[in-house]
Write a structure and sequence with these properties.
- This protein is of the alpha+beta class.
- It has 2 domains: 8-142, 2-Layer Sandwich (60s Ribosomal Protein L30, Chain: A); 148-330, PurM-like C-terminal domain (Phosphoribosyl-aminoimidazole Synthetase, Chain A, domain 2, Alpha-Beta Complex).
- It has helices at 8-22, 63-77, 97-113, 165-174, 176-179, 185-192, 201-209, 222-234, 249-258, 278-287; strands at 40-44, 47-56, 81-92, 117-126, 133-142, 156-160, 214-217, 237-241, 271-275, 292-299, 303-306, 312-314.
- The strands form 2 sheets. Strands 7-9-6-10-8-11-12 form a 7-stranded mixed β-sheet, sandwiched between helices. The protein has a 5-stranded mixed β-sheet with strand order 1-2-5-3-4.
- A hairpin with a 2-residue loop joins strand 1 and strand 2.
- Helix 2 packs parallel to helix 7 and helix 4 (165-174) crosses helix 6 (185-192).
- It is globular and about 55 Å long.
């Protein structure tokens, strides 16, 4: 199989169907595992406990910062407040103590910025990996769950910030010397700085307060993958207008160099929000300094992309993220 998340159809067959068939049901568990839903929810006295888990596998630099923010984003996207995080660090043989110290400093600083506690975890040097891998579980709480699958027919589809945000930052950080052969240094620096915007804490709070029907953190598979998952989870159709999806200039240029689709590039830091009347939502997001754009609508039909020429195409389920499809020897201007 290709690198990246397992395709949804295979995930359903080999993982979710056996869980439905053999898994036990407990009254405390409010949400069953499903495609596109990133959080488990458990009822507790006084509220709801949220849990989510994610690894960092596609980046080399800033993995401590990415691990904390990406996992916290899942909790925020469910309308919750992240409380704490547990981290399993698998490190290749030969890892220097200074490298571990750097990762843990990033973890602690990022967790502090989000008001989260580091609850513990596991650290191991192993021959099973050839680069540092962080796998995390985050816990949070909420009063009302906002699911990926809550979208209704007629809702508008909003995304915050711009497509490919995280992937742009990772590619700039991890391939700086290579990109210097194609781009001015200031463009690469600007692209790398996009990793400073990977938290969706603010938009999650705004979405929860102003009546979002669904929220989804845009990760692997990019904006188009998130649109597919939100529609699939909701049992609805969707129209996505490609020319409405915002792209930064640095994302466009890096995507051209690596010959990848920026609309299917990992985009943590961007959130998909659905709402029947998006104007107030967008106004409040922009008041918080978060750009937001309507890129489509939820329908009772199929899943479609409308391209820049007005032609309609089927929106396919997400496959390997663009980040995993890069071949440097094929790159060009």
């Amino acid at each position: 199989m290709n690198a990246g998340k397992i395709p949804n159809t295979i995930l359903e067959k080999i993982i979710l169907e056996p869980l439905k068939q053999y898994g036990i049901k407990r009254s405390e568990v409010l949400s069953a595992p499903s495609v596109g839903e990133d959080c488990a929810a458990i009822t507790m006295d006084g509220g709801t406990l949220l849990l989510s888990t994610d690894p960092i596998t596609g980046a080399v630099n800033n993995i401590g910062k990415l691990a904390v923010n990406i996992n916290a984003n899942d909790i925020v996207s469910a309308g919750g407040e992240p409380i704490g995080i547990m981290i399993t660090a698998l490190l290749p043989v030969g890892t220097e103590i200074s490298e571990i110290e750097k990762i843990m400093k990033e973890v602690c600083v990022s967790a502090n910025e989000l008001g989260m506690a580091v609850l513990g975890g596991h650290t191991e040097i192993t021959e099973a990996v050839n680069k540092p891998i962080l796998s995390c579980t985050v816990v949070g709480k909420c009063q009302k769950i906002i699911s990926t699958g809550g979208a209704n027919v007629g809702d508008k589809v909003i995304i915050t910030k711009s497509a490919g945000l995280e992937g742009t930052g990772i590619l700039a950080k991890d391939n700086r010397e290579y990109l210097l052969g194609y781009l001015p240094e200031e463009v690469i620096d600007r692209a790398a700085s996009r990793l400073e915007k990977i938290s969706v804490l603010k938009e999650g709070r705004v979405g929860a307060e102003y009546g979002a029907t669904a929220m989804h953190d845009i990760t692997e598979g990019g904006v188009l993958g998130a649109c597919y998952e939100a529609a699939e989870c909701s049992g609805k159709g969707i129209n996505v207008y490609l020319d409405k999806i915002p792209l930064s200039e640095e994302t466009k240029r890096i995507a051209e160099i690596f010959k990848i689709d920026p609309y299917r590039l990992i985009s943590s830091g961007c959130m998909l929000i659905t709402h029947p009347e998006p104007e107030k939502m967008i106004e409040e997001l922009e008041r918080e300094g978060i750009p937001a754009t309507v890129i489509g609508e939820i329908t009772n039909g199929e899943k479609f992309i409308i391209d820049q020429n007005g032609d309609t195409h089927v929106l396919e389920e997400p496959q390997s993220d663009s980040l995993y499809l890069i071949k440097k020897d094929d790159a060009g201007t």
